[in-house]
Amino acid sequence: MSPASTPSVVLGDRFARELPELARPWQAERVDDPRLLVLNEPLAGELGLDPDWLRSPQGLRLLVGNVVPAGARPVAQAYAGHQFGGYTPRLGDGRALLLGELTDDGGFPRDLHLKGSGRTPFARGGDGLAAVGPMLREYVVSEAMHALGIPTTRSLAVVATGRAVQRETPLPGAVLARVAGSHLRVGSFVFARATDDLDLLRRLADHAISRHYPYAAEADRPYLALYEAVVHAQAALIARWMLVGFVHGVMNTDNMTISGETIDYGPCAFLEAYDPATVYSSIDHQGRYAYGNQPAVGEWNLARLAESLLPLLHDDEQQAVALAVETLGGFRGQYLAVWNAGMRTKLGLYAAPDDVVTPLVEELLRLMHQSQVDHTSLYRDLATLARGDAAPVRSRFLDLAAFEAWSARWLSLSPDPDAMDRANPVYIPRNELLEQALSAATQGDLAPLAPLLDAVTRPFEPRPGLEAHAAPASADFVHYQTFCGT
Ligand code: AMP
Ligand code: MG
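# adenosine monophosphate complex -> structure
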């Protein structure tokens, strides 16, 4: 490893300095033949990184962790996790590294992090590596989420390593460069609490407050204010997942952030045919992380966060529990407030009273479920109906009489189709097209990736040539399965 020749990249080591117990200094595995697959130029710009330099041999070496700017101290982060409900005390970055913190053009700290950069002390049985397909999946889906206005970690680049990664078959390897407000997770707190080191727990909470919720420091009970802020951020985040039909797929406590950003795009996928029981992940046999279970799982994870924070909430444990229970009790109402407002917007309704809108939404979801209606295109077709053309939407429902009764009620409320089009995307990463683009990229053909990224990074503007990205799933893809990125 050598210092970067460019003086322009400055990485901080605040996490490593303030929380050494959670940071194992480590270095990325050597990559002999890095090749850039995709670079996020707008994001590079936000971070003050020169895209031309990032494309240079030295830039690529930074993007795989083989060159470390002076002053930076890459670390593997320690955290615990409840995986499918089962507690694992020591997970941590098994194949990832925090290179350090950058400051973005808004003045906010952002982590620069690598995934697939080689084994770390947390690798357990894993090889520390990642394949091209799953890293591009994270790139595409996280950038789609960002374009949909949903808080998420971002993807700066995917660099092929030229090295084979052994999975069921050998696959080309890659490293993802990821950017996040931070990589603090619910599992970071679970880990810190399990050490019984109250000073560490307090430093972690102070670090989280200072990075994400600085106003909490001014509250009467700063750590309770931190907990309230995370509950609120996650309630709002999961409501927004539900509104766009995002299925995370592996909502373990190590994959839930303190910042309220979506993180760890593994077996995730977007809902196509509407069904709350939809599960895409091949390993989620019980449907724990089904689309419709996500709010309840979020709440369960936040209870694990509360358990970890208890010693900071109050000296008296019973009072600490009471404070945590009361705060978590706000989750459902906060979730529903964001979700209800979002459904109103999706349906172009402003003024109608709740007792009219709520049953209307319930009946629509029942009809969508019954007819397995495509979750994304439906709302655009409804806007078309509001403009006077019923043909596209009528073909989607099996029980046409029931749909017509519903639409008469809805139209009587004068929905605003332009507002609907601003809220309802035309393009999401369609499972079949995403799968095709990833398998082509795995074979070395990057051509299908470009139109896919073009579609999903400007999701609200219909454009000629991208029709396939707006079309409902073909019958073969209704029972689609995703596989973990490991
Ligand atoms: P994930 O389900 O991707 O969030 O990963 C869960 C845990 O497994 C984390 O601690 C990862 O760092 C670790 N992990 C996943 N894949 C690998 C791998 N190929 N090598 C080492 N550790 C891994
Ligand atoms: Mg993870």
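# post-check
Residues 254-255, 264 surround magnesium ion (ligand 2) (CB under 6 Å).
The chain has a mean pLDDT of 96.
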